[in-house]
C-alpha cells in the first residue's frame, strides 16, 4: 500500500535554517523540493529519512532571472514547467528547455523542480522496484543490501544517473550555487557529480542547492537526445548532450559531450570531444566522433533497455547530437 | 496532525490531517470528493489529477501540508461544462476511471493556451495529456472531445 | 428505428464526467475494516506453518487461514484445482496463504508483517516447452494434411512467439463484502465483469445457497478480461474476512499487488507448416499451439479452445491439422485478456501468410484475397459459413482506404528512417465457444413498471464498453418506445437473472438478442394502437392487471451443432471479420518504431451504437499495437519483473497513432438487428500488421512480439553481422 512512512516534516523559512536542520539531523534528514522523486521512493522504502526538510517556503529561489549580460540564474525551486515554457530559455537555451520538456509527464513537471532534477537519485533496475521485489533479492548495495546485482563482484554501486538536465548543464558548463554551513559557494555543475551509484554527489549532505547559472548563450550550440520506450513518462535509458563552440571559420574550438543514462554520472565522451576540436563539423568528423563514444558508454544491466542495444545506440546518438549543433 | 486550510472547488475548507497525508486521501477520505481516482499511487497514470493553483498535478504525490492556503480544483468543481459535454458526446468516456483526471488536464491546457494565445492542435493536446493514461479509448475520442471543447474541429 | 444505429450519449457519461460515478473504492461503507493478504514469496513449495510474531497483538485484527473456510477451499470455476488459501502446496509466487482484516491501514500493515509463512521450497518449472503437466489438449482435423506435402508447390514453415500482456485497467481490482445479514445473506460489491461467476465461487467457499450469496457489480473502471475470473478470489477473501470480523471488509488491491498476482495474457508459441500451390492456394495447414497456463487451470482450457479455433485465420483450406496444448508451470496463472487466445494464434497465422507471400513473390493482399473465406466455405471444424461472411468486405475496405494493395511488399528500402506497411486479416467468433451458450442458458427479463417504463434485468456489466447504451437502444427499438422509457437493473444477482458473464464478445449478440426477444414479446403482449406512446399503453396494461413481465432463455439458432469430443461442427454461431493496415517508420540505428498510420475495417454485423463501437475498435486496436511492440511482461524466478506502472508500460497519447476506423456491416440473421460481437476482435489484428510493417520497412523477419528495439536489433544483426559491436 503506497503510503508514506512516518517522519518529521520541517518547513524552514530561510536557507540558513534549512542547512542548520540538515546538519542537526545528519543522515536522517533529506531535503524535499517538488517531492516527485523522493515521495515515491519513500513509499517503496528506497529512501527512509526520518526528517524531511521542505524547501517550499525558502524565499528567492523559485524564479528565472535573465541577466543583462545574457546569463540566466534559475532558482532551484523553479518548477520544470516554468522553465519549459519560458520564452527566453526556449529561444536562447533550446537544448536545455528541450531536455526539461523531455522529463516525465506534464503533471510531474508542474510539481518537480529544476533543483530536484539536478539532484535526482540514481536509478537501477534492482533498486527502483517495489519493496517486496527488492526484499526477494535480499535488497542491493544501494539500500539495505550488500551486493550490487548489476555487477555482483563489484565493491561499488552501479546505479545510473537518470536526469535529463544533468548531461546538458554539464556539457554547457553551467554553474550551481550551494549553501552550506559556511555560506554559499559556486562551482561548475559537472563538479557536483561523482562516479558512484550511492554517493553520486560531491556536496556535503547538508549543503543546499540554491541556483543554477546558465552561461551567456553565445559562441556555442547545444543539443540533447533521449532514448526511451515511450515519448512520455519514461526515464532516459540513454541521454546524450552535446555542446560545441566554434570559431567564425566554423572550426570547433571546444566541445563537451556527456552521456546520461550510461553510468553513475554524466560520462564525458572525451575521445569524441578531442576529435572535434580543431576540425569543422563535417559528416566524416561527426561519424568518427560518434564511433569514439563507444568506449565511454559503459552501459550495464541497470535500467530498462537491453545493455547491448543501449551501447549500440550511444555512438549513433552522439553523432546525431553533434550534428544537431551544426 | 495539522489543521489544513485550503480552498477546494472555490470554498475554503479546514481539515485535521497528518501533514503527510496524500492530497488524494484528504480529498477522498476527509472531504468525500471521490471523483479523484487512484490508479497507481506513484505518479505513473494520472487518474488522481487535480488542479493546484490552476496547474494539473498528481494528487497521489502531493502531501497535504503542501497545499495549505492554496487553491485546489477537483472534478466535482471543474465547472466548464463545455469540456464535460464534449467528453460525453465525442467518445471521450468509456470506463470513466481516467475521465476526471483527463478532463482536468484538458481544462488546464486549454486555459493555458488561451492565456498564451497559442493554438490548440492535436499534437499539442497529445503532449499535454501524455501524463494521463487511458486504456479504453485509444485516445482518439479524448482528443476529439478536447478539440471540440476548444471550438476546433469535431 | 430511432436508437439502433444512431449516435446517442451513453447513459453513464454524465455521472462519469462529473466524478459522480461510484467505483468500488468510492463506496462509503460505515465501520468497514480493511483487508489484506499474506502471500507466498516462492514460486513453488510446501507450506509448513504460519508463524505469528509474538510482539504483535493479534486481538486487534482478524486472521483467516485455510482452516477457517466453511465451504470448499477452491476457487470454483472450471476445474476446482485452485485453493482460495494455500493449505499445503504452494504453486506460484504470490499465492494467498492467509488473510487479515484490521480497523486501519497501519494496523493492517503491521499484522501482515507479523504473519510469517514458513515454506519449504521445491523446484519450480517455468519452461512451458519442458512442462509435462498438460491442463488441456485439443485436436482439430480436416482432410488429410499428410497426403498433401509431396504434391505442394512449396511447403513453408515458421515458428512464432507472443509474450504475455497485462490488461492494465486503470482501476485496480477490489471488492467489499458484508457479513451475513439476519437472513444469512452475504453481499459482495466489487469491480467485476461476471456477477454470477463470483456468486458461484462464493457459494462454494462459504457453503451458501444461491439466495444467500448476492453479488453486485459496481461501476467498473475497465476489465478487458482481467476482471473475469480473478474477482472471484477477491470476493471470497473479502467475504471470509467479513464473516470472521462480523463487519464489512474492503479488500482493495493497490497497483503493485494487482500487477503481481492477477492473471495476464497467456504466453504462446505457434508452429506452422503450410503447403501452398503456385497460385497461392492453401493446400494444407499443420499447426501446433502451445500456451503457458501457469500454476492452476483457471480459464486456460477455454483460452486454448478459442486459440486453436482461430488458428487457421479466416482462410479456406481443405486439409487442416491443429494440435493445441496449454500446460502447467509455476507462473502466476494466466487468464482472460481481450481476444482470449485468438491474438496469439492470429499473430502466428498472419505472419505465416506474409512468409508465404514472400516465398511466392505474391503481394500479401493478393494472397489473402485468394484464400479468404467466402460464403459457402467451411472452416477447419467443418462449419459451413453461409451468413454474414465479411472477410473480403473488410479487406476491400482497408485496401480502398489505404491503397496498400499497390504498395510494393518487401522491397529494399534505404536511409536512416525506413517506412513499411503491413496488413492483417482476422476473424473472431462471437459468443461462447462450441456449446457454451447452450449449456449456459442465459436468461433476461423485461418488466413493465407502474409508470409504463420497462425495466430490463440482465447481469451484463458496464465495464466501459457501452453495455448500458447498447442494451437500452435494443430494448427501446424492440419495444417501440423512447430510450428514456427503458430502465436497466444493476448487475445484481439478487435482482437480475443470469444472463451470463460479460466476456467473449457476447454481450451484444447474446444478451442483446435476449433483450430484443423479451422486449418484442412484451410489445406484443401490451398490444394496442401503436400510434399511441408505448409507455401509456404499457402503464394501462399493467393497471388493468396484465402480466407485464417476460423472461426469456437462450436457445441456439436452428442448425447450430457442435461436437465437443471431436471438435467438429459450428464452433461459434457466427464470426466477425476485421482487417488492419499499419504504416510504420523504423529508425535503423535505434530500431525505434513509430506507427504513422493505422486503418482498420471491422464487420460487426450491425453497429447498435456506432460511436461506442468505434471507441471499442480504437481502444482495442491500441492495445493490440502495444502488444505488438511496446508492452513487455516477463518474469524472473516466477515473479513478475514489471510490477509497477513505471515499468509495466502501456501507450500514452503521444504513442498512439491517428486511427481510421471503417465500420462494415454484414447483418447476421440471428443477431439483434443483425449485430454480432465487437469487444475482442480489435485485439487480434494489430500486432501481426505492425510486425509485417516493420518487416517490410527493414527487411528482417519479425516472428515474435513484442517487437522491442532490442529484439529488432538482434534480428537485424543476424543479417548484418558486420554491424555487430
Topology, number of strands of chain A? 12
Please state the structural category of chain C. Answer: alpha+beta
> How would a crystallographer describe the biggest sheet of chain A?
5 strands, antiparallel
Number of helices of chain A: 12
Number of helices of chain C: 16
Keywords summarizing the entry:
heterotrimer; A: 326 residues; alpha+beta; Uridine Diphospho-n-acetylenolpyruvylglucosamine Reductase, domain 2; Enolase-like, domain 1; 2 domains; four-stranded antiparallel sheet; 12 helices; B: 154 residues; Ubiquitin-like (UB roll); 5 helices; 34% helix; globular
What's the helix and strand layout?
The complex is a heterotrimer of chains A (326), B (154) and C (725).
Chain A: E1 8-10, H1 15-25, E2 29-32, H2 38-43, E3 51-54, E4 64-66, E5 72-75, H3 80-85, H4 87-92, H5 94-101, H6 106-109, H7 114-118, H8 131-136, H9 165-171, E6 175-180, E7 183-188, E8 208-214, E9 220-227, E10 238-246, E11 252-260, E12 267-268, H10 270-276, H11 283-291, H12 307-323
Parallel strand pairs in A: 1-3, 2-3
Antiparallel strand pairs in A: 4-5, 5-8, 6-7, 6-8, 9-10, 10-11, 11-12
Helix pairs in contact in A: 10-11, 11-12
Chain B: E1 2-8, E2 11-17, H1 23-30, E3 49-52, E4 55-58, E5 71-73, H2 81-89, H3 99-116, H4 122-128, H5 140-149
Parallel strand pairs in B: 1-5
Antiparallel strand pairs in B: 1-2, 3-4, 3-5
Helix pairs in contact in B: 2-5
Chain C: H1 13-17, E1 33-39, E2 45-52, E3 62-64, E4 89-90, E5 96-102, H2 105-114, E6 115-121, E7 134-142, E8 154-162, E9 174-177, E10 186-190, H3 195-206, E11 213-217, H4 230-245, E12 249-252, H5 255-261, E13 268-276, E14 282-294, H6 300-309, E15 319-328, H7 342-360, H8 364-371, H9 391-402, E16 417-429, H10 436-440, E17 443-448, E18 454-457, H11 467-479, E19 486-488, H12 507-526, H13 534-543, E20 549-553, E21 562-563, E22 568-569, E23 575-587, E24 593-603, H14 610-629, E25 635-636, E26 639-640, E27 659-664, H15 682-698, E28 704-705, H16 709-719
Parallel strand pairs in C: 1-12, 8-28, 10-11, 14-15, 18-19, 24-27
Antiparallel strand pairs in C: 1-5, 2-4, 2-6, 3-5, 7-15, 8-13, 9-10, 9-12, 13-14, 16-23, 17-18, 17-20, 21-22, 23-24, 25-26
Helix pairs in contact in C: 3-4, 6-7, 7-15, 11-12, 14-15
Amino acid at each position: 500500500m503506497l503510503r508514506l512512512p512516518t517522519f518529521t516534516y520541517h518547513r524552514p523559512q530561510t536557507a540558513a535554517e534549512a542547512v542548520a536542520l540538515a546538519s542537526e539531523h545528519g543522515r536522517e534528514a533529506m531535503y524535499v523540493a517538488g517531492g516527485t522523486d523522493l515521495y515515491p521512493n519513500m513509499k517503496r522504502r528506497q529512501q527512509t529519512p526520518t526528517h524531511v526538510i521542505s524547501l517550499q517556503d525558502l524565499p528567492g529561489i523559485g524564479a528565472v532571472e535573465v541577466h543583462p549580460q545574457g546569463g540566466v540564474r534559475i532558482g532551484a525551486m523553479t518548477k520544470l514547467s516554468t522553465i519549459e515554457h519560458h520564452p527566453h530559455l526556449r529561444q536562447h537555451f533550446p537544448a536545455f528547455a528541450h531536455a526539461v520538456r523531455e522529463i516525465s509527464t506534464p503533471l510531474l513537471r508542474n510539481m518537480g523542480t529544476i533543483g530536484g532534477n539536478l539532484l535526482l537519485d540514481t536509478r537501477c533496475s534492482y533498486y527502483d522496484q517495489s519493496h517486496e521485489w527488492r526484499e526477494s533479492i535480499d535488497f542491493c548495495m544501494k539500500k539495505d543490501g550488500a551486493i550490487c546485482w548489476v555487477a555482483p563482484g563489484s565493491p561499488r554501486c552501479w546505479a545510473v544517473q537518470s536526469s535529463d538536465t544533468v548531461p546538458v548543464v554539464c556539457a554547457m558548463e553551467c554553474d550551481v550555487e550551494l549553501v552550506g554551513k559556511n555560506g554559499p559557494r559556486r562551482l561548475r555543475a559537472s563538479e557536483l557529480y561523482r562516479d558512484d551509484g550511492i554517493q553520486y554527489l560531491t556536496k556535503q549532505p547538508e549543503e543546499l542547492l540554491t541556483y543554477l547559472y546558465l552561461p551567456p548563450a553565445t559562441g556555442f550550440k547545444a543539443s540533447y537526445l533521449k532514448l526511451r520506450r515511450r515519448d512520455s513518462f519514461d526515464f532516459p535509458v540513454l541521454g546524450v548532450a552535446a555542446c560545441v563552440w566554434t570559431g567564425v571559420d566554423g572550426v570547433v574550438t571546444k566541445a563537451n559531450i556527456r552521456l546520461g543514462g550510461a553510468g553513475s554520472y554524466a560520462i564525458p565522451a572525451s575521445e569524441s570531444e578531442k576529435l572535434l576540436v580543431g576540425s569543422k563539423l563535417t559528416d566524416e568528423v561527426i561519424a568518427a566522433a560518434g564511433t569514439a563514444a563507444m568506449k565511454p558508454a559503459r552501459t550495464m544491466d541497470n535500467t530498462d533497455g537491453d545493455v547491448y542495444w543501449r551501447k549500440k545506440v550511444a555512438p549513433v546518438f552522439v553523432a546525431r547530437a553533434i550534428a544537431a549543433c551544426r | 496532525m495539522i489543521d489544513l486550510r485550503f480552498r477546494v472547488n472555490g470554498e475554503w475548507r479546514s481539515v485535521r490531517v497528518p501533514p503527510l497525508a496524500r492530497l488524494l486521501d484528504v480529498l477522498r477520505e476527509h472531504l468525500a470528493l471521490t471523483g479523484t481516482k487512484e490508479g497507481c499511487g506513484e505518479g505513473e497514470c494520472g487518474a488522481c489529477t487535480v488542479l493546484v493553483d490552476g496547474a494539473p498535478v498528481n494528487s497521489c504525490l502531493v502531501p497535504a501540508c503542501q497545499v495549505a492556503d492554496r487553491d485546489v480544483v477537483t472534478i466535482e468543481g471543474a465547472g466548464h461544462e463545455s469540456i464535460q459535454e464534449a467528453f460525453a458526446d465525442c467518445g471521450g468516456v468509456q470506463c470513466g476511471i481516467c475521465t476526471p483526471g483527463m478532463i482536468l488536464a484538458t481544462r488546464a491546457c486549454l486555459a493555458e493556451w488561451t492565456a498564451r494565445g497559442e493554438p490548440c492542435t492535436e499534437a499539442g493536446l497529445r503532449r499535454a495529456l501524455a501524463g494521463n493514461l487511458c486504456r479504453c479509448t485509444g485516445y482518439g475520442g479524448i482528443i476529439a472531445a478536447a478539440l471540440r471543447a476548444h471550438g476546433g474541429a469535431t | 428505428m430511432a436508437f439502433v444505429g444512431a449516435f446517442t450519449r451513453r447513459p453513464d457519461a454524465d455521472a462519469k464526467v462529473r466524478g459522480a460515478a461510484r467505483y468500488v473504492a468510492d463506496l462509503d461503507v460505515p465501520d468497514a475494516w480493511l483487508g489484506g493478504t499474506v502471500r507466498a514469496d516462492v514460486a513453488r513449495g510446501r507450506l509448513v506453518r504460519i508463524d505469528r510474531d509474538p510482539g504483535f497483538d493479534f486481538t486487534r485484527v482478524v486472521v483467516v487461514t485455510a482452516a477457517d473456510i466453511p465451504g470448499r477451499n477452491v476457487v470454483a470455476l472450471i476445474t476446482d484445482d485452485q485453493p482460495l488459501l494455500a493449505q499445503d502446496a504452494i504453486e506460484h509466487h504470490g499465492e494467498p496463504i492467509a488473510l487479515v482484516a484490521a480497523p486501519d491501514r497501519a494496523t493492517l500493515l503491521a499484522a501482515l508483517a507479523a504473519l510469517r509463512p514458513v515454506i519449504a521450497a521445491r523446484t519450480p518449472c517455468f519452461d512451458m516447452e519442458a512442462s509435462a503437466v498438460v491442463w488441456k489438449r485439443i485436436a482439430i482435423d480436416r482432410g488429410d494434411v499428410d497426403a498433401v506435402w509431396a504434391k505442394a508447390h512449396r511447403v513453408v514453415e515458421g515458428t512464432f512467439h507472443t509474450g504475455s500482456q497485462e490488461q492494465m485497467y486503470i482501476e485496480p481490482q477490489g471488492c467489499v463484502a458484508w457479513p451475513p445479514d439476519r437472513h444469512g445473506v452475504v453481499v459482495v460489491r466489487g469491480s467485476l465483469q461476471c456477477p454470477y461467476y463470483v456468486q458461484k465461487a462464493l457459494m462454494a467457499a462459504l457453503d451458501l445457497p444461491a439466495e444467500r450469496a448476492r453479488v453486485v457489480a459496481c461501476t467498473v473502471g475497465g476489465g478487458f478480461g482481467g476482471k473475469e475470473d480473478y474477482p472471484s478470489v477477491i470476493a471470497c477473501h473479502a467475504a471470509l474476512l467479513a464473516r470472521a470480523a462480523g463487519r464489512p471488509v474492503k479488500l482493495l488491491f493497490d497497483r503493485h499487488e494487482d500487477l503481481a498476482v492477477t492473471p495476464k495474457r497467456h504466453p504462446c508459441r505457434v508452429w506452422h507448416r503450410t503447403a501452398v500451390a503456385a497460385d497461392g492456394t492453401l493446400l494444407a495447414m499443420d499447426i501446433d499451439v502451445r500456451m503457458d497456463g501457469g500454476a492452476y487451470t483457471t480459464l486456460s482450457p477455454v483460452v486454448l479452445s478459442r486459440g486453436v479455433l482461430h488458428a487457421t485465420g479466416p482462410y479456406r483450406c481443405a486439409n487442416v491439422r491443429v494440435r493445441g496444448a496449454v500446460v502447467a508451470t509455476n507462473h502466476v496463472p494466466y487468464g482472460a485478456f481481450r481476444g482470449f487466445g485468438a491474438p496469439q494464434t492470429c499473430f502466428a497465422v498472419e505472419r505465416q501468410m506474409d512468409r508465404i507471400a514472400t516465398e511466392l513473390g505474391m503481394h500479401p493482399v493478393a494472397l489473402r484475397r485468394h484464400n479468404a473465406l467466402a460464403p459457402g466455405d467451411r472452416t477447419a471444424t467443418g462449419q459451413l459459413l453461409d451468413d454474414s461472411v465479411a472477410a473480403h468486405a473488410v479487406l476491400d475496405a482497408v485496401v480502398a482506404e489505404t491503397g496498400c494493395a499497390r504498395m510494393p511488399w518487401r522491397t529494399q528500402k534505404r536511409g536512416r528512417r525506413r517506412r513499411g506497411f503491413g496488413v492483417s486479416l482476422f476473424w473472431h467468433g462471437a459468443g461462447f465457444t462450441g456449446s457454451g451458450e447452450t449449456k449456459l442458458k442465459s436468461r433476461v427479463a423485461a418488466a413493465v413498471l407502474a409508470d409504463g417504463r420497462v425495466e430490463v434485468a440482465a447481469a451484463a456489466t458496464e465495464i466501459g464498453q457501452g453495455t448500458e447504451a447498447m442494451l437500452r437502444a435494443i430494448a427501446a427499438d424492440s419495444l417501440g418506445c423512447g430510450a428514456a422509457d427503458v430502465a436497466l437493473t444493476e448487475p445484481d444477482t439478487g435482482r437480475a437473472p443470469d444472463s451470463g458473464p460479460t466476456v467473449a464478445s457476447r454481450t451484444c449478440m447474446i444478451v442483446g438478442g435476449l433483450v430484443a426477444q423479451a422486449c418484442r414479446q412484451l410489445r406484443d403482449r401490451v398490444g394496442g394502437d401503436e400510434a399511441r406512446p408505448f409507455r401509456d399503453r404499457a402503464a394501462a396494461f399493467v393497471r388493468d392487471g396484465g402480466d407485464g413481465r417476460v423472461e426469456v432463455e437462450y436457445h441456439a439458432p436452428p442448425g447450430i451443432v457442435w461436437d465437443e469430443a471431436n471438435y467438429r461442427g459450428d464452433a461459434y454461431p457466427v464470426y466477425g471479420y476485421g482487417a488492419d493496415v499499419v504504416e510504420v517508420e523504423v529508425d535503423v540505428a535505434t530500431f525505434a518504431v513509430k506507427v504513422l498510420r493505422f486503418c482498420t475495417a471491422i464487420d460487426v454485423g450491425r453497429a447498435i451504437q456506432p460511436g461506442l463501437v468505434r471507441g471499442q475498435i480504437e481502444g482495442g486496436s491500441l492495445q493490440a499495437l502495444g502488444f505488438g511492440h511496446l508492452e513487455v511482461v516477463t518474469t524472473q524466478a516466477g515473479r513478475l519483473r514489471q510490477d509497477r506502472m513505471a515499468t509495466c508500460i502501456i501507450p500514452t497519447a503521444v504513442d498512439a497513432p491517428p486511427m481510421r476506423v471503417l465500420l462494415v456491416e454484414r447483418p447476421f440473421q440471428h443477431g439483434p438487428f443483425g449485430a454480432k460481437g465487437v469487444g475482442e476482435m480489435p485485439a487480434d489484428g494489430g500486432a501481426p500488421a505492425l510486425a509485417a510493417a516493420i518487416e517490410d520497412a527493414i527487411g528482417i523477419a519479425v516472428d515474435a512480439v513484442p517487437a522491442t528495439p532490442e529484439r529488432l536489433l538482434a534480428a537485424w544483426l543476424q543479417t548484418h553481422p558486420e554491424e555487430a559491436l
